[in-house]
UniProtKB/TrEMBL annotation:
The protein's name in its UniProt record: Assimilatory nitrate reductase electron transfer subunit
Pathway membership, UniProt: Nitrogen metabolism; nitrate reduction (assimilation)
Highest taxon above the source species: Bacteria
SUPFAM superfamilies assigned to the protein according to its UniProt record, in alphabetical order: FAD/NAD(P)-binding domain (SSF51905)
Entry similarity comment: Belongs to the nitrite and sulfite reductase 4Fe-4S domain family.
The protein's required cofactors: siroheme; [4Fe-4S] cluster
Organism: Flexivirga oryzae
Residues in FAD/NAD(P)-binding domain copies: 7-289
Gene3D superfamilies tied to this protein: BFD-like [2Fe-2S]-binding domain (1.10.10.1100), FAD/NAD(P)-binding domain (3.50.50.60)
Length: 518
């Protein structure tokens, strides 16, 4: 008996939707399942790496190279993509999705992956000239607006706000950040660490105004000229960028009568409690764990749902790695591990603070494991603690040793010799890709970054591992050359520079950060 084809309509074509398509291709290659997928995406572009938009602003990634790798296909799975088309109505009685181009798409299961939108700090302020950074079009407009040095105000001292602020400062603007709390990154950092981060930002050319609340935007005729704060202060500015959080895009679900709170309510199985034929994943979904608004939980949801849609039993998965947060800002290194700014109760916590040196490190250890940490201006210690946390292995009982000495063998950085890096070292944290996975991909014939990214998914998340992956590929080119090329003796010290023409949705092709910033 042949299995009937299941019709899936996927609303949204962002990073989580692409992950679902890719994972569907992978799992149905394992177990062929006839699937007919229609993707409806309202952005007119190929899907792209949204995380790297702030890196584009910082000049560390190129706008034209953010396209995500083509999802894996499988025999029996057909995928039709509608770009620049918005789904407007979800008719649950007829099981049809209506779109703004007049088309209708019947479904057996509809998956909502509509993401979120940037929150306006004041209603209607976007119409008054305040800019946001959510889409590739926003990024283009922002780049055009900051093409010459100017006075910029960034509203919001969270992760994205600071990334934007540092990006603008790097482009020569005088930047002030308005932050409501008593210190920046107050959802991640305790006050002392926040103060050190503030000093590091000042050193990078970003002035932070704390307990500063935006009251209105000041305009002169048709031109934005500054902002007014609730305490009466007025700040001149010719560019105002808001980063005041996100709002899940729930409109289509709400109109269809589905339960919506902050996001589209779904149970652990990612289905709406009101209608099991409707699933929601990514930023738009509110699972029993809430709406984190981060990529890793969205990808984990996509992986689970793909198995479910292919009729496969669930597999136990590790918790999504969203407990490690890294600020992607030039000149200000901040990494936090664990939930929230306060160290866990009962853990042995040690702090080393050097405000003059703009360094602050804190680690909490319980049961011989790293359970929380925050590091400002201490890249190497941050990398070591992250590796120790993710490995979950025992660490020296005195936490102070972790801050003073680090864990010399635990970390991976772009400067590490790929020959000595242990095979099991995680290279791409976003996707759990190890050195061995990269080596295996190279041996299987993937010799450029786009091929390795397509097979392993390395570099397709935050892009922070690109340099290390390039180093590994350069090393592998030497130890595993094509048949007509002699291996080189100078494996370990070869410069990591390759010219890869493909798009891979990561920082750029195999070029070192130094080369990029030149
Ligand atoms: C600049 C920036 C930096 C970030 N950095 C990080 C980071 O370092 N780490 C991290 O974890 N997260 C980061 N994020 C958040 C991360 O990008 C999101 O968590 C992730 O993109 C969520 O993916 P998604 O597919 O759920 O939603 P989205 O990426 O928002 O995609 C949803 C898509 O659906 C489309 N859509 C919506 N409604 C409809 C409709 N009715 N019909 C058709 N299409 C529709 C939208 O236009 C969009 O294209 C960052 C976000 C930004 C903007």
């Amino acid at each position: 008996m042949t299995t009937p084809t299941r019709r899936i309509v996927l609303v949204g074509h962002g990073m989580v939707a692409v992950r679902l398509l890719d994972q569907l291709g992978r799992v149905t290659t394992e177990r062929p399942t006839p699937l007919d997928v229609t993707v409806v995406g309202d952005e007119p572009h190929d899907p792209y790496n949204r995380l790297l938009l702030s890196e584009v602003l910082a000049g560390r990634a190129e706008l034209g190279r953010l396209t995500l790798p083509e999802p894996t296909g499988s025999p029996g799975m057909t995928v039709r993509v509608l770009r620049g088309v918005a789904a407007t109505v979800l008719d649950r009685d007829r099981r049809v999705v209506h779109c703004d181009d007049g088309s209708e798409h019947p479904y057996d299961t509809v998956v909502l992956a509509t993401g979120s939108a940037a929150r306006e700090p004041l209603p209607g302020c976007a119409d008054e000239g305040v800019r946001m950074l959510r889409t590739i079009d926003d990024c283009r407009e922002l780049l055009a607006a900051c093409s010459y040095p100017r006075r910029a105000v960034v509203v919001g001292g969270g992760l994205l706000g600071l990334e934007i602020a540092c990006g603008l400062a790097g482009r020569g603007a005088a930047v002030q950040v308005l932050h409501r709390g008593t210190h920046v990154l107050d959802r991640q950092l305790p006050p002392a660490a926040g103060a050190v981060a503030g000093a590091a930002l000042a050193h990078a050319g970003v002035e932070v105004l704390t307990e500063a609340d935006l009251e209105s935007v000041r305009r002169d005729d048709d031109r934005l000229v500054g902002v007014r704060l609730r305490d009466g202060r007025e700040l001149p500015a010719d560019l105002v960028v808001a980063s005041a959080g996100v709002v899940p895009r729930t409109e289509i679900a709400a109109r269809a009568g589905l339960p919506v709170r902050t996001g589209i309510v779904v149970d652990d199985d990612l289905r709406s409690p009101a209608d099991p034929r409707v699933a929601a994943i990514g930023d738009c979904a509110e699972t029993p764990d809430g709406c984190p608004g981060l990529l890793a939980p969205g990808w984990a949801q996509a992986d689970r749902l793909a198995r479910d849609l292919a009729g496969l039993p669930p597999v136990p998965t590790a918790p999504a790695p969203n407990a490690v947060v890294k600020l992607k800002a030039v000149g200000v290194d901040v990494v936090t591990i664990g939930d929230g700014p306060e160290p866990p109760a009962g853990a042995h916590t040690v702090t080393l603070s050097d405000p003059m040196g703009r360094r602050h490190v804190q680690v909490s250890v319980a049961d011989d494991r790293v359970v929380a940490a925050c590091c400002v201006g201490a890249k190497r210690v941050a990398a070591d603690l992250t590796a120790a946390y993710e490995r979950g292995g025992p660490v020296p009982p005195d936490p102070a040793l972790l801050l003073l000495d680090g864990l010399p063998t635990a970390t991976v950085s772009a400067t590490d010799d790929p020959t000595t890096m242990p095979s099991a070292t995680t290279v791409c944290r976003c996707n759990g890709v190890t050195k061995k996975d990269i080596v295996d991909a190279h041996v299987a014939g993937d010799r450029d970054l786009s091929a390795v990214a397509a097979r392993t998914r390395a570099t397709t998340g935050c892009g922070g591992c690109t340099e290390v992956v390039c180093g590994l590929l350069a090393w592998m080119d030497d130890v595993n050359p094509p048949n007509d090329v002699e291996p080189s003796n100078d494996v370990a010290h070869r410069k990591h520079s390759r010219n890869d023409p493909g798009n891979f949705g990561a920082v750029t092709s195999c070029t070192t950060q130094k080369e990029i910033s030149r």
